[in-house]
Amino acid sequence: MEEFKRTPVKQKTKQILKLLRKENPDYNYLRELFRNLRRELEVEVVTLDQKLPYVPTEEEIRKYYQAVWQSRNMQHVIMIKTLLYTGVRVSELVMVQIADVDLDRCQIRINQGKGKKDRIVPFPESFKEILAIHSEATRKKGGKYLFESSWKKGYTTRGIRKILEFYTKQAGITNSISPHKLRHFLFTWLKKQGIDDALIQPYSGHESRQSLEIYSKLSIGDAQSNYENIIRKLPHSSLKCNTVTFFCKNLKWGFPLQFLSWCFIII
What we know:
Elements: H1 9-20, H2 27-40, H3 58-71, H4 74-86, H5 90-93, E1 101-102, E2 107-110, E3 119-122, H6 128-140, H7 157-171, H8 179-192, H9 197-204, H10 213-217, H11 224-231, H12 243-250, H13 257-265
Antiparallel strand pairs: 1-2, 2-3
Helix pairs in contact: 3-4, 3-7, 4-8, 6-13
């Protein structure tokens, strides 16, 4: 049987280009054109098996946060809590500005996220005091972004990943904890708590509810109250603190802002 030889792709592209150039095609035209070509040629779409992402266990999250907390690096604590509470992508986190944080509504506006779409993500009411103190301290230093490096510039995505990788080693966890794994953990955990896809979708930034099926296999905005009630159970830390009692026993005039900040972190 004679072996069939195909025209090299680049050569065939030039041949097709001569036919299409006068059509002045746009993306939608080309998409429909090749969809019809595939149908006429009876070419089946090849779908690769989708591997489920690794999702940290609740115990790993506890150990991980314990390592972050023991560092006493306030910015890192707040940064990682923000990732864990909101499920934002690292590329979105580095672009969050102080002006995007709505402390009254306990929401953060994500501008031009994945797919160039804007959305709102929630954070717990118990987190707003420390976030307010952090935001104000950064603003007074002339900062623009919610999280900035010591050079007064916004972090890079690589910089954030290196920070999280450092605490993975500190916690002695085998599987590295990345920003995206914290995102996977949050949405998987919310699903386990019975939160419906319809509530998770607008916060997650997924195109459709179908995109969230992966989280179903592994086991908010009309109703932020549902999120607020559920997020209190998030196993990020076994440390607890009564803020009012702590203030009464320890607050003295002249304490620095950083001391006050710690009073709100473990909530």
